[in-house]
Specification:
Strand content: 25-35%
Number of helices: 6
Radius of gyration: 18 Å
Number of strands: 9
Largest sheet: 5 strands, parallel
Helix content: 25-40%
Distance between the termini: 31 Å
């Protein structure tokens, strides 16, 4: 699994992710304490844990077992009771239906063809109770401008991260080189290195407003 390779540095990679904005958005619109929530593509569970501390029941879903392992540790430290599930959004099958499904931080942009998008919406609709809501975001023009020939880096004692992006038509390419500190050896730190190239796509929001299946 691609994301397993840099699960240890994922939080550094997502340091500017709008988790707080998503949390505020959902709190403002829903009585989280009285509903069941699924966080799809939850990564290391930063948003999931905040939702899980308030929701009646919460499940975090991701394709990466390494990401979910970190998410589980985060939930335990926060005292949040969350179910974790390794699944692909296109084949989503939850143990029980939910009232709210969330796919934040460009999850849908990693579905690179129309058929994948259709499958994802169909699977999420089947996972929702009647009247349920699917809350998601996609990459917009402002973010796309930033990603054009973008370059970010972070270096500290625990992680060194180089992240370069480019936009080629509808494709967005991310090249990530990372070194994560894993342990000490004879007084010297040891680092695990990884290099990944990730592709996602941009598409107009109107593509998401087509007549997809209804919840329930």
């Amino acid at each position: 699994m691609l994301y397993d390779a840099f699960a240890d540095v994922y939080d550094a990679l997502m340091a500017d992710a709008p988790y707080a904005e998503w949390q505020a958005f959902l709190e403002d619109r829903y009585s989280l304490h009285s509903i069941d929530i699924a966080d799809i593509g939850c990564g290391t569970g930063v948003l999931t844990v905040e939702l899980g501390r308030q929701a009646r029941w919460c499940i975090g879903i991701d394709q990466s077992e390494a990401m979910l392992s970190i998410a589980q540790e985060r939930a335990m430290a926060a005292g949040a009771r969350i179910v974790w599930l390794t699944q692909d959004i296109r084949d989503l099958r939850l143990p029980r239906p939910v009232d709210l499904a969330v796919a934040s931080c460009d999850v849908l942009n990693y579905l690179t063809c129309e058929e994948d998008l259709r499958r994802a919406f169909h699977a999420v609709a089947n996972a929702l109770r009647r009247g349920g809501v699917f809350a998601f975001d996609v990459i917009g023009p402002a973010r796309l401008h930033v990603l054009q020939h973008g370059y970010w880096h972070q270096v500290d004692d625990d992680v060194a991260l180089l992240h370069e992006t480019d936009v080629q038509g509808e494709w967005i390419l991310h090249e990530v080189v990372a070194f994560a500190r894993v342990r000490e050896a004879v007084g010297e730190p040891l680092y695990r290195g990884s290099k990944s190239v990730i592709a996602n796509v941009t598409f107009p929001f109107r593509r998401c407003k087509r007549p997809w299946p209804q919840p329930g």
